């Protein structure tokens, strides 16, 4: 739970309440083709963790005399609408407002409003798309806002003429305890991210002004078309992951532009990375009943037990098997309910008997210095060792063939396992206290207990399984593994099919990102052959750059899939073998090795170029 400073709490108790905004009602008054809008910026008391949570002092926007709200009031107009805006600054410092300008133009001049004054502006909407506006009372850029002014942000949606199908708007924000002086110091750093961690601020990550379990619960019917717009107005990168279903990315944009994909070019994914100051429109269709999640896959953004520097903090007060235990922050809960017309017909008696596997979860002492490994052992006729492999055993499944996996917990603590990217029944999805429906809800797997998971993979591709307990020790210590789905009758060929899992080598602070749990692994690949590379990122939260190269630079590879789905035709072209991959993403590529002997290098770095790991590939 967040604990603010005493001074902030006392001040908050004397201020008017700030409400949360679900972004379902547009602000302003429309008269013909002109939207008249009156906003004010002020200070209020905000309770992001619900009515019983702690109140903190925050700056926010409100409409007219209405209460201040987080996010700021939604501005939604049709393309071609003229916006006549008036903004009053009730703060004690000058307010700089960005985004009150026509979209699609090369520049947008901010609006500076001295304390206690009002400014008017008038502009046309610009082209249809998902945009935003934001402000700062500290004079800081979007990626360095902190403390009081982090919530001065709102959605600006421009609909095409004639409107759009019903959709929902979700604005991602964060609150940090950083002061103006600390923010100024960060802005001057060559590596502001590392400097940010050293400051160890309090941080909350939010969707529409709330943190789980207080975020809105969404409900849809089977086969209903679901349309969302997501806007990242935080300072952090967020890989947004949908459980149980693929979603189509309709458009990606930013402050000024919205780039829509042609129908045949829409990426179909389960995880989409959102940089600070970016927007996304997406569509998905619920195909199975039950409870599901949409959340950021960076552990510190959803874990109640970690600070941003991964040090421990007090756990959520809720305990046991409840969904509140083990999650906070950027999480949305989605419930899909049935519709008789949309239900699928029963499979009947022709369903083949499932393939049965047993995964035993246990520890291996002093694997990472004094710390143990947490991992999986495939307990079947092929098991050769009681050594705990990290990553976990490679599960090779067949499309359309049922599988039954018994999870046996020999760990010293409870856990839950998520089958990332798999389209399966909600009860087996692995979110304890949430997955399932009604009284049939997925339990935590307690030490000494077991849990049986059943599903039938509907498509081929590269997936993963991992702990969903949002516990840094469990994930960084090896409680994850690759899961591959091939065509029926197809044999997995280790000589030409290579699984590259990026994880963390232990739970210690400063632990490295590793390739298949090695900092410098060696590979031997067959010369003159067509190879498949399957990249998986299941680190606690890293965004990484993977390059396959010779001494002369990257080789050429051919993109195949993203998250198990074929990449759109425009991206399915040979190119340099370099890929950014965020936690929760998988990518597949083809690469043909030269006919002679050669040495390649598989490098893993940060996007800024900081080295993490390097594997040698001997082509023979």
Keywords:
7-stranded mixed β-sheet; Immunoglobulin-like; disordered N terminus
Description:
It is a single chain. The chain has 620 residues and is mainly beta. It folds into 4 domains: 6-160, Cupredoxins -  blue copper proteins (Immunoglobulin-like, Sandwich), CATH 2.60.40.420; 182-337, Immunoglobulin-like (Sandwich); 350-491, Cupredoxins -  blue copper proteins (Immunoglobulin-like, Sandwich); 493-620, Cupredoxins -  blue copper proteins (Immunoglobulin-like, Sandwich), CATH 2.60.40.420. Helix content is 5%, strand content 44%. The protein contains 4 helices and 47 strands. Strands 1, 2, 3, 4, 5, 7 and 10 form a 7-stranded mixed beta sheet that branches. Strands 13, 14, 16, 18, 19, 20 and 22 form a 7-stranded mixed beta sheet that branches. Strands 35, 36, 38, 41, 42, 43 and 45 form a 7-stranded mixed beta sheet that branches. The model is unreliable at 1-7 (pLDDT under 50).
Structural class: mainly beta
CATH domain class name of the largest domain: Mainly Beta
Q: Which ranges are low-confidence, i.e. pLDDT below 50, for 5 or more consecutive residues? A: 1-7
Helix content: under 10%
Distance between the termini: 55 Å
Radius of gyration over C-alpha positions, nearest whole angstrom: 25 Å
């Amino acid at each position: 739970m967040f604990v603010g400073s005493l001074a902030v709490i006392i001040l908050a108790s004397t201020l008017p309440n700030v409400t949360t905004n679900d972004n379902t009602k547009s602000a302003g008054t429309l008269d013909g083709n002109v939207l008249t809008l009156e906003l004010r910026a002020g200070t209020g008391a905000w309770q992001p963790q619900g009515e019983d949570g702690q109140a903190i002092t925050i700056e926010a926007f409100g409409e007219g005399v209405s209460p201040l709200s987080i996010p700021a009031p939604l501005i939604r107009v049709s393309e071609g609408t003229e916006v006549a805006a008036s903004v009053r600054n009730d703060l004690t410092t000058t307010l700089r407002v960005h985004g009150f300008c026509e979209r699609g133009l090369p520049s947008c001049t901010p609006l500076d409003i001295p304390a206690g004054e009002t400014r008017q502006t008038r502009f046309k909407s610009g082209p249809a798309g998902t945009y935003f506006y934001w402000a700062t009372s500290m004079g800081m850029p979007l990626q360095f806002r902190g403390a009081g002014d982090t919530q001065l942000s709102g959605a600006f949606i421009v609909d095409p003429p004639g409107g759009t199908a019903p959709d929902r708007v979700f604005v991602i924000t964060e609150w940090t305890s950083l002061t103006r002086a600390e923010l100024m110091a960060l802005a001057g750093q060559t590596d502001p991210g590392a400097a940010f961690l050293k400051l160890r601020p309090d941080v909350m990550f939010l969707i529409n002004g709330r943190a789980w379990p207080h975020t809105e619960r969404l409900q849809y019917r089977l086969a209903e078309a679901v349309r969302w717009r997501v806007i990242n107005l935080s300072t952090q990168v967020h890989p947004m992951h949908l459980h149980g279903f693929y979603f189509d990315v309709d458009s990606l944009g930013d402050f000024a532009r919205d780039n829509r994909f042609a129908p045949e070019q829409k990426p179909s994914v389960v995880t989409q990375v959102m940089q600070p100051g970016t927007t996304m429109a997406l569509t998905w269709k619920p195909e199975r009943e039950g409870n599901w999640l949409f959340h950021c896959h960076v552990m510190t953004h959803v874990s109640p037990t970690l600070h941003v520097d991964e040090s421990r903090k007090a756990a959520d007060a809720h305990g046991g098997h409840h969904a509140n235990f083990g999650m906070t922050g950027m999480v949305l809960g989605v419930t899909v309910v049935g519709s008789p017309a949309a239900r699928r017909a029963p499979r009947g008696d022709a369903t083949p008997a499932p393939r049965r596997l047993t995964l035993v979860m246990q520890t291996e002492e002093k694997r990472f210095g004094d710390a143990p490994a947490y991992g999986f052992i495939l307990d079947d006729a092929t098991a050769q060792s009681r050594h705990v492999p990290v990553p976990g055993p490679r599960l090779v499944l067949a499309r359309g063939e049922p599988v039954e996996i018994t999870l046996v917990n020999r760990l010293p603590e409870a856990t839950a396992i998520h089958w990332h990217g798999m389209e399966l029944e909600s009860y087996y999805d692995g979110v304890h206290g949430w997955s399932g429906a009604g009284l049939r809800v997925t339990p935590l797997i307690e030490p000494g207990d077991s849990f049986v998971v059943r599903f039938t993979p509907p498509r081929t591709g590269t997936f993963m399984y991992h702990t969903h307990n949002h516990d840094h020790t469990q994930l960084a210590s090896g409680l994850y593994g690759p899961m591959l789905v091939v065509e029926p009758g197809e044999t997995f060929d280790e000589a030409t099919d290579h699984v590259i899992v990026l994880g963390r080598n232990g739970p210690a602070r400063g632990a490295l990102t590793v390739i298949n749990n090695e900092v410098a692994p060696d590979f031997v690949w067959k010369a003159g052959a067509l190879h498949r590379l399957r990249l998986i990122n299941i680190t606690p939260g890293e965004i990484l750059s993977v390059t396959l190269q010779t001494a002369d630079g990257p080789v050429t590879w051919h993109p195949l899939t993203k998250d198990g789905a074929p990449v759109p035709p425009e991206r399915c072209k040979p190119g340099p073998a370099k890929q950014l991959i965020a936690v929760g993403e998988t990518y597949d590529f083809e690469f043909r090795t030269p006919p002679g002997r050669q040495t390649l290098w598989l490098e893993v770095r940060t996007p800024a170029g900081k080295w993490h790991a390097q594997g040698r590939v001997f082509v023979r």
